[in-house]
Design brief:
The complex is a heterodimer. Chain A is mainly α. Chain A contains nine helices and no strands. The chains are: A mainly alpha, B alpha+beta.
Chain lengths: 189, 290
């Protein structure tokens, strides 16, 4: 397909792991706004959000040797670091005892919806994309067709030439796996 | 009524069809089924979030300056990658994309999200809504790369399936001034690998036949070796070492691709053992030759 000039992810992931500084700048360009917004939503304070944003990229770069491009995409990895940095910032803050106010504000935050997905939902999407790739063959292809091409399971079945029951059970298992990945991601942060 | 089975809940979460009246009644009264459905719907929602609909606030320039200074990065990277020195809050995915766009000249994004038709919309109106009319350039790499993987896998599946697409057939009647592609295949990554690529077999004007492989490099423990194998992989012939990105290999005249339709790229350790390492990076299959 139109794949030729779109190998950014692998290239950037590997360049980052190899210590190429321009990969860090590129990651910042692409993910800085998301990471900054996640921090801002959680911390409700520009100064604190700035600190987290800087912390994430500084931490990421310093620990780049522990990043394994084969195991995870850079966005998902950076979002993991972001979650840790935010939670560090929140616990530092709780030691300052204004945690109650922060918690109240978070509760009042409207949940994401189809019309108004928020930065957290987008961050989760990166996490799921990572997991989606790990589903393997043919589950990844099946779920992409279901999610992004909006095909029904019988359309997928004929498109991939797989039995209907196989497609259905792959969809069931894959959805369950994606769901639990999301739960793990949030439970552990 | 029994609980709704998980396959059905999955299809409902994907909004393949609305729940029947009986199913809806059960969901209304059953906390277990309705909470499972809700969690699955949320999963679908998240997986299909359209970045265009997410409002993001770009970090102001002093953030990059601080990172740059803290890490002692090269002076050539001193400029804010987000490229907005005045750095008012950049609104939304589109806002973040705006200043970034010039830095990615290869990636043309239509200004109007609706100007690019979305792929096959047989059904509309899933509650998760977010189909992908367009991705912001800042996301493009990640998302497109994954699509690339899927495209490779999809192409391989197509080729391996019975509905193999016709290969570009040589036209023997016409004198061939240039190389003629006689077979091609996508290369799909195997477990643990991510690079997708393509390969084609060309008839050259001098009568020889060459295999041209394009497969982006990934970090490997060894080097990349190119093999063709029988359909059951019981026989393998090595064609040589694939360096960076693209490589060309001569196909020996006596080698019939119909007997060796599987193209396999392996990761070979530097151990001097000439046999296949059993670790394949990517694979494709040439459709039967005419």
């Amino acid at each position: 397909m139109e794949a030729a000039d779109r190998e950014w992810d692998v290239g950037i992931d590997h360049a980052f792991a190899a210590g190429e500084e321009r990969a860090l700048a590129e990651a910042y360009r692409r993910l800085g706004p998301l990471i900054h917004t996640l921090a801002l939503r959680a911390l409700r304070e520009h100064g604190a959000a700035d600190d987290v944003t800087q912390e994430v990229f500084i931490r990421a770069w310093k620990s780049r040797t522990s990043y394994r491009p084969e195991a995870s995409r850079l966005p998902a990895w950076l979002i993991g670091i972001t979650r840790n940095a935010i939670s560090d910032a929140l616990s530092a803050r709780s030691r300052r005892r204004d945690v109650e106010r922060a918690a109240l504000r978070l509760v009042n935050d409207p949940p994401p919806s189809a019309d108004r997905p928020n930065a957290d939902a987008l961050a989760d999407r990166f996490t799921l994309e990572d997991e989606l790739e790990r589903l393997g063959h043919p589950q990844t292809a099946i779920m992409r067709l279901a999610f992004f091409e909006d095909l029904t399971h019988d359309q997928i079945s004929s498109r991939l030439n797989l039995p209907l029951g196989t497609v259905k059970s792959h969809i069931r298992r894959s959805l369950a796996r994606l769901r639990s990945r999301l739960e793990v991601e949030h439970g552990s942060s | 009524m029994d609980h709704l089975d998980d396959e059905l809940l999955g299809l409902l979460a994907l909004a393949e069809r609305p729940a029947t009246e009986a199913e809806a009644r059960h969901l209304a009264g059953c906390a277990a089924c309705s909470s499972t459905l809700e969690a699955l719907q949320h999963t679908v929602f998240v997986a299909t979030v359209n970045p265009e609909h997410v409002e993001l606030e770009a970090p102001a320039s002093h953030n990059w300056a601080a990172i740059h200074a803290a890490l002692g990065l090269s002076p050539s990277l001193a400029g804010d990658p987000l490229g907005s020195p005045a750095a008012g809050p950049a609104a939304g995915g589109a806002g973040a994309a705006g200043p970034a766009a010039p830095a990615a000249p290869g990636r043309d994004i239509p200004a109007d999200p609706r100007s690019r038709p979305t792929a096959g919309r047989q059904r509309g109106g899933r509650p998760g809504g977010g189909r992908f009319p367009q991705r912001g350039p800042w996301l493009l790499g990640a998302a497109a790369g994954i699509l690339l993987g899927a495209a490779g896998a999809w192409a391989a599946l197509t080729i391996l399936g019975p509905a193999a697409p016709p290969v570009a057939a040589p036209s023997p009647s016409r004198p061939t001034a240039t190389a003629v592609v006689v077979a091609q295949t996508a290369l799909a990554p195997l477990a643990g690998h991510s690079a997708s690529g393509s390969a084609r077999v060309e008839d050259l004007p001098d009568g020889s036949r060459q295999l041209v492989i394009s497969l982006p490099e990934e970090k490997l423990s060894g080097f990349r070796e190119v093999w063709v194998g029988s359909a059951d992989l019981s026989k393998m012939v090595s064609l040589g070492v694939l360096g960076q990105g693209t490589g060309s290999f001569v196909l020996p005249g006596g080698l019939n691709l119909a007997d060796y339709p599987v193209l396999d790229i392996s990761n070979e350790p530097y151990d001097g053992n000439p046999a296949h390492s059993a670790e394949s990076i990517a694979r494709g299959k040439f459709a039967a030759q005419g």
